[in-house]
Each structure stands twice: as structure tokens, then as C-alpha cells.
Design goal:
Bound molecules: ligand BES, manganese (II) ion
Helix content: 25-40%
Strand content: 15-25%
Keywords: Hydrolase, Metal-binding, Protease
Order of helices and strands: HHEEEEEHEHEEEEHHHHEEEHEEHEHEEH
CATH topology of the largest domain: Aminopeptidase
Shape: globular
CATH architecture of the largest domain: 3-Layer(aba) Sandwich
Distance between the termini: 24 Å
Oligomer: single chain
Strand order of the largest sheet: 1-2-6-3-7-17
Pfam families: M20_dimer, Peptidase_M20
Protein name: Acetylornithine deacetylase/succinyl-diaminopimelate desuccinylase-like protein
InterPro entries: Bact_exopeptidase_dim_dom, Cyt/Met_Dipeptidase, Peptidase_M20, Peptidase_M20_dimer
Structural class: alpha+beta
Length: about 450
């Protein structure tokens, strides 16, 4: 029998090449121009699961993109791990800012990844991280040392809100029955400071439209005499935060759980350098809610951000015009206990209330989801912690993340099991950004660590 370390050193070039092939398919779920590519990616994942040793693999149709399901059941009396991941990716825009084409993966060395990183859209989020699980399974089946049953559920709509998965899960609770859910779709602090994600924020995403006059107007003939929707929208957005950077929507903070001083002190122990943080982003100061640290602001506190704003003339040169309409896309990151549908409603009511006479406001909710926190006193967390101890040589730090995987809260509700978030990406990997990448070291370290999770989870389940 080979150890995982031996297996990786024999097969690592193939592991990298296979991931590169997967990254070449532009599975952008947000853009229907890529729908055939999204479907082709699902087929490729199916294939890879078969080759990795699943004894049943199936493409589950949904109202949207299919869900790839695969399983290897070795003994009904053993515990079952359900692996979740996503095969869709974010749009690559703005394309011009990529140093190499987003769907033509290249390996380049960086300061943080001296052993090289794979640059491509989806390298880290989530194809690379999802594929670590496929390769870990390949190792365990090839050696006949898989200690648990395993089920895979890989979806194609995570980046657009997981609507079809939310449809699929309650209809298939028996098929998906498990003892723990394992996901690699988050990050860790640094390659020498591993961490396990213990929380995700919720999300409410809305689009707003402000309409003034019924047509675009000459800004000389009408300017000053009618409401300019872009001016008004900017003012309304600016009013959503006060001078302390608190969100002004009435009721917004009502259900926010305030962490105790002890919990905040515990959080503050995680290694973090504000100087390096600022340097990496080339900013001279951080900015955020008064009385909270940077790590608190981006994990345990809710936020409101404009993701895009448009209207009027943005072509070359100058055009004197008062646009009829202005738009913005706004997201609110939520913390556990805040209900995303309730927050969406509070936003809508408030935004309509603050609109001055002279404009009409329309608020359209997009998608959302609840936040999630997982306790660390369960065997899933303990198995993960032991796995990192074996492969990193140190105990991982539990840390709440600012990102969202809305479907995780639904898993708990429908499948009644805890999710363990073993992420191997770094914040500097530029997910959702131009030049997204995933360290080769991180990719292989993930493949190495996962089999230890299975081993310890099986042992702790006895
Ligand atoms: N993998 C990310 C979420 C993530 C990344 C969590 C890093 C923690 C650390 C996921 O694919 C994602 O991008 N989620 C979206 C929400 C979704 C509904 C579009 C997000 O967080 O913006
Ligand atoms: Mn993801
Ligand atoms: Mn993502």
C-alpha cells in the first residue's frame, strides 16, 4: 500500500494536468452564452468520478443546470461523508485585466506561491478545490483504504445562487443522507497557518432602479429643474451608512448576535498584520464600522455594499444629459440570526421611503441565503483538526469567514447534518477577480489532507 504522500509524488503531474483540462472549459453559470460549456463541465466531472472509483455516478436533472451525483458505498454500517462542491465559475470580466487568458491555464510562480500557482478562472473557486476531493478519493479507492462511505454532490449554479440545488436537496433527502458534509470552497489564513472555516455570512442581493423624467433630457434645458436619477441614487446610497459606518436601515441590526468580549479576544489571537493587509491592497488606511477590527468587520459584522452602479452617458467624450434612469446592484452580507428575506424586505421598505418626490424607485430582490456557524465540539471538526495536524504539523485555527455559501444553511435544515469547511485557498488567490489562481502546493496539500479527514472521522465515529 502506498501512503498518500507517495501516491502524490508519483501522480502529481497528472493531477495538475487533469485540473488544467477542467479549467479550460468556461463554465460561467451567469452567462447563457456558456450554457453548453457548463453542461460539458458536468460531463467531465461525471467521468472523473467514475475513474476515481465511484460505483454509481449519475447526472441529476433539475430545472436548471444538472447536479453531478456520485457515490461509493462500502458498508451500510459505516459513516457517510457527503462532499459538496461547484463546477460553475464566475464570469471572467474584466478580461483586459488578466495577464493570461482566463480559460487558458498557466502555471506561474508568485511571492506567496514560490512553487507555482495555476492561473485560470475557477482555479481556486471552486474547480481546483473540488477536484482535490476527486483525487483524494482516487487515492483511497486505488489502495482499498477508504474508511467511510462517500457521496459527491457537485452543482453548477453556486455562483448564481444555487436555486436548482435548493430544489433538489429537499426532494432527495434519502439519497443524500450522510453523517457529515465536507466542503472545500473557502480559504485558510496562510500556508503555514492553516485554519478551518467555522462560519459563513448570509447574503441579500438586490437591484435598484430610480426613474426620473420619462426620457433622457438636455442637461442645460432641464438641469436644475427636475430630479436627476443618478444624483438622487448616489445620495440615497450614501445615506445608507452613517458617520460611524453603521447601516441606517431601521431594524437592520435587531437580530445581529453581539459576540462577547471573550469571543472577540479569542478571535483577535489569530495571526493578522494590518500593515501587510494594507500593503497587499495598496491602500493607506482601512475603512469600516467604528469600534470593530478589520477581522471583525469582515466576518462577524453585517455589511452593505454597492457592487455596480450605472446610468447616463459613459461613452467617450462628454455628453450633456440627464438620464431618465439610474441603477445599482447592492449586496448585504448578513450574520447568523439575521433572516435574509426579512432583511431584503427591510431594505425595500427603507429604500422606497427615502426616495424624494420627483423619482420612482423599484427594488428587485435577486437571491440570498442565511449565514452559518458550526460548533467546534463535534467529531467532524475534530477529524478535520486532526487531519491538518498530520499534514501541516500544527493545530488549525477556527475562523469565521466573510464569504457566503448560502446552500450550507439549507443542508443543515434539510439533511440535519453539520458542514465542515476545509478550504485551502488564500485571500490573495484573487477569486472572482482577474488573475484568479490556486497554489500548486495548496492543491496537493488539500489532496494529502483529505484522506486523513476520512480516517479520523471513521475512527471518531466508532
Ligand atoms: N467559494 C465562495 C465563497 C467563499 C469564498 C466563502 C472564500 C469563504 C471564503 C463562493 O463560490 C461564492 O463566491 N459565494 C458567493 C455567494 C453566491 C450566492 C454568489 C459570495 O460569497 O459572494
Ligand atoms: Mn465557491
Ligand atoms: Mn465564488
Amino acid at each position: 500500500m502506498q501512503t498518500i504522500q507517495e501516491y502524490i509524488s508519483t501522480h502529481k503531474n497528472r493531477f495538475i494536468e487533469e485540473l488544467i483540462e477542467l479549467l479550460k472549459i468556461p463554465s460561467v453559470s451567469a452567462d447563457t452564452a456558456y450554457s453548453q460549456d457548463v453542461l460539458n463541465t458536468a460531463d467531465a466531472i461525471m467521468d472523473s468520478l467514475k475513474k476515481a472509483g465511484c460505483d454509481h455516478v449519475e447526472l441529476c436533472e433539475t430545472p436548471g443546470y444538472p447536479i453531478v451525483y456520485g457515490e461509493k458505498i462500502i458498508d451500510k454500517n459505516l459513516p457517510t461523508v457527503l462532499v459538496y462542491g461547484h463546477y460553475d465559475v464566475q464570469p471572467a470580466d474584466p478580461i483586459d485585466l488578466w495577464d493570461s487568458p482566463p480559460f487558458n491555464p498557466v502555471i506561474k510562480k508568485t511571492d506567496i506561491h514560490p512553487e507555482g500557482a495555476i492561473f485560470a478562472r475557477g482555479a481556486c473557486d471552486d474547480k481546483g478545490q473540488m477536484y482535490m476531493h476527486v483525487k483524494a478519493l482516487e487515492y483511497m479507492t486505488s489502495q482499498g483504504n477508504l474508511p467511510c462511505n462517500v457521496k459527491f454532490m457537485i452543482e453548477g449554479e453556486e455562483e448564481v445562487g444555487s436555486e436548482s440545488l435548493a430544489w433538489f436537496v429537499p426532494r432527495n433527502t434519502e439519497k443524500l443522507a450522510n453523517d457529515v458534509i465536507l466542503i472545500s470552497d473557502t480559504g485558510m489564513i496562510a500556508n503555514d497557518i492553516p485554519s478551518i472555516t467555522t462560519g459563513l455570512r448570509g447574503l441579500s442581493y438586490v437591484e435598484v432602479e430610480v426613474t426620473g423624467p420619462n426620457r433622457d433630457l438636455h442637461s442645460g434645458l432641464y438641469g436644475g429643474a427636475v430630479a436627476n436619477p443618478i444624483n438622487i441614487l448616489s445620495k440615497m446610497i450614501a445615506s445608507l451608512h452613517d458617520e460611524n459606518n453603521h447601516i441606517t436601515i431601521p431594524g437592520f441590526y435587531d437580530k445581529v448576535e453581539e459576540l462577547s468580549r471573550e469571543e472577540r479576544d479569542e478571535m483577535a489571537k489569530a495571526p493578522f498584520s494590518l500593515e501587510e493587509y494594507k500593503k497587499a491592497l495598496e491602500i493607506d488606511a482601512v475603512y469600516g464600522e467604528k469600534d470593530y477590527t478589520t477581522n471583525e468587520r469582515n466576518s462577524i459584522r453585517p455589511t452593505l455594499d454597492v457592487n455596480g452602479i450605472w446610468g447616463g452617458y459613459i461613452g467617450e467624450g462628454a455628453k450633456t444629459v440627464i438620464a431618465s434612469k439610474a441603477y445599482a446592484k447592492i449586496s448585504m452580507r448578513l450574520v447568523p440570526n439575521q433572516d435574509w428575506e426579512e432583511i431584503t424586505q427591510l431594505f425595500k421598505t427603507h429604500f422606497e421611503n427615502i426616495a424624494p418626490a420627483g423619482v420612482k424607485v423599484k427594488v428587485t430582490p435577486h437571491h440570498g441565503g442565511q449565514g452559518y456557524v458550526t460548533p467546534i465540539n463535534n467529531i467532524g471538526y475534530q477529524a478535520a483538526s486532526k487531519a491538518y495536524q498530520e499534514t501541516f504539523g500544527v493545530t488549525p485555527i477556527p475562523q469565521r469567514s466573510g464569504g457566503s455559501i448560502p446552500i450550507v444553511a439549507l443542508f443543515e435544515q434539510e439533511l440535519k447534518s453539520k458542514t465542515i469547511l476545509m478550504g485551502f485557498g488564500l485571500n490573495s488567490d484573487a477569486i472572482h477577480s482577474p488573475n484568479e489562481h490556486f497554489g500548486v502546493w495548496n492543491y496537493l496539500k488539500g489532496i494529502e489532507t483529505i484522506p486523513y479527514f476520512y480516517k479520523h472521522f471513521a475512527e471518531l465515529s466508532k
